[in-house]
Structures are given as structure tokens and as C-alpha cells.
Amino acid sequence: VRDIIERLAKQNGGSFSPEDVVNSCLDLMGPITMSEESTRSALIQHVAKKGDLSLRKRESGKAEDERVAELLGLIAATKEYHRA
Asked: How far apart are CA 32 and CA 61, in angstroms?
């Protein structure tokens, strides 16, 4: 998880819209193709509840890291991930 967070922090200057962070996490975990748009949309909506994500000037354990870790867990729980 920390490796993925570090890799994300180096992309896009560390700033992501909810859609961008979901797409980047899917790529870093697989890549995984979401066969059902509803799954991808649900992930984006979940991230969007707390707005854009910034991993700039971050410290380990901060809320942004926790958001990414939570998203990775949600992705890992999807049926698409288990089929990959």
C-alpha cells in the first residue's frame, strides 16, 4: 500500500480528481478493467465525498494516505479484482 501511495505522489504533481485517483489506483493494482461501470462509478462517488486528493507535502499516516488505502481496499473487494 505504501509503495502505491508513493507512486501516486509522483504522478500528476500529487494532485488528483476523484476519477483520476480511481483510474490511477486501478492501473497500479493490475491493471484492472471494470466490467461494470456501476462499480467504477461507485468508487469515484465514494472518493468524491471528500473532494480532490492531494499527496503533496504529505506525511505518512495523514488523512490522504488513509483515503488511498481505503480506496485500495475497496478495489480489492470488487468482483473484477478477484477475476483478474
From this structure: 26
> Domain range holding 52?
2-83
| Tens digit of each residue's pLDDT (9 = 90 or more) over 25-48 | 999 998 788 878 899 999 999 999
Q: Per the structure, how many domains does the chain have?
A: 1
* pTM of this structure: 0.89
Assess contact for 26 and 34: CB atoms under 8 A: yes
Tell me which residue has cell 500528476. Answer: 12
CA distance between the termini of the chain? 18
Q: Cα–Cα distance between 19 and 84 in angstroms, integer?
A: 21
Q: Are 76 and 29 in contact (CB under 8 A)?
A: yes
